[in-house]
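Notebook entry, cofactor series.
This is the third protein in the set we're modelling with a bound small molecule. For this one the ligand is copper (II) ion. I'm keeping the input format identical across the series so the outputs can be compared line by line later. Sequence and SMILES below, as received.
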Amino acid sequence: MRHPIRTVATWAVRFSIVAALAGCSAVASAPSAGEPRVIDITIDGYHFVPDHFTVRVGESVRFRITNPDTIGHELYLGTIEEQADRRIAGVPTPSEESAVTHFGYGIYLPARSGGEFSYMFSSENDLLIGCHLPGHWEEGMVATIDVEP
Ligand SMILES: [Cu+2]
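Returned structure with ligand:
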């Protein structure tokens, strides 16, 4: 027979997870002064959804990412040249593959996880977000960011 207190505790945990998920899927309202714009990205196989963004020079963006996939992925923000450099250098193995890991202007997300990072677009260079785990870029795991004046 289940202990009633344990059952209530289990339900409370489940409810808070559902509440957290509901909060994550909420559409961001217009940011007030000083708050960065929030862009939600979901990983779907070898694709970022959405895979194209438009931002303005000087805009700060908080990227909020969900990885429901059964494998880890990274989001590496940089110019096309920086993406090429990372492809050549290869992705360093995260120090802890089971943990969300921040590196430079990017983030590694283990399977079934989520995380976020912020970036301020200070120049008009168009940027890309790429995943450089072996074979992922080649499968088209890239998103494009137009930076408008
Ligand atoms: Cu990937």
